[in-house]
Specification:
Helix 5 runs parallel beside helix 8. The chain has helices at residues 2-20, 26-37, 42-60, 67-90, 96-120, 126-136, 143-164, 178-206. 78% of the residues lie in helices and 0% in strands. The longest helix has 29 residues, at 178-206. By secondary structure, it is mostly helical. It contains 8 helices and no strands. It has one domain (2-206).
Length: 207
């Protein structure tokens, strides 16, 4: 239940991020840069990138591939799209204050949901697996700091590819905004906080 609910809430949070329109999360920044450079449909590109990340996780530590991984792959996009379309009927041309509130809610929900399905230990998203493998298998550092590092790499590579594709600096806010910066620096620590104070106690209580 923690795994399933975690993925569903994560998908809802991404839809709320889209309503906020203040920058996508770091991984989506990378995907936007790749999409601007590679002339194939975004859906196909998304699958290819996730399959590459899935291969990395399978080769390094299969432990992080499980039920939640595949729920994430096959359901997240549809739930996100439904959430976004539904919220558009409620928030028509939202003002800046409403967008900031949506951004705050989206950040809290995505961190909370990530903590739920990570702690459930039935698999994580292919992107989440990278920081977890580096922290728990190779002991490069603490998860929250590694996550900040991988997020920053995604943003830098995404922006570089975006500019190389012919876009200008003025176009950057379409893929990187305040929401991107906040998630890059605070998502790792917030996930850890929710792990310690919510998800782990919930799992122990269940046992």
């Amino acid at each position: 239940m923690m795994s399933f609910v975690g993925v569903v809430i994560c998908a809802v949070s991404v839809g709320i991020f889209k309503i906020a329109a203040l920058g996508v999360d770091p991984f989506q920044s990378l995907m936007s840069g790749l999409d601007s450079m590679i002339p194939i449909p975004f859906g196909t590109l998304y699958v290819i990138v996730n399959l590459i990340l899935l291969a990395f996780a399978l080769l390094t530590d299969k432990h992080y591939i499980g039920l939640a991984t595949f729920i994430n792959l096959f359901l997240l996009g549809y739930i996100t799209q439904f959430t976004y379309e539904f919220l558009q009927t409620i928030f028509v041309n939202p003002g800046l204050l409403t967008r900031f509130v949506c951004l705050l809610i989206g950040i809290i929900l995505i961190c909370f949901s990530s903590a739920l399905y990570m702690t459930a230990d039935l698999g994580v998203s292919t992107y989440d697996a990278i920081a977890l493998v580096m922290a728990n298998k190779y002991h490069i550092g603490q998860f929250q700091f590694i996550r900040i590092g991988t997020d920053l790499v995604c943003i830098l590579v995404g922006c570089t590819l975006f500019l190389l594709s012919g876009k200008t600096i003025r176009d950057i806010p379409t893929i990187v905004g305040i929401g991107t910066a906040i998630t890059a620096f605070f998502m790792g620590p917030l996930i850890t906080w929710f792990n310690v104070h919510v998800a782990e106690p919930l799992l122990k209580e269940e046992k």
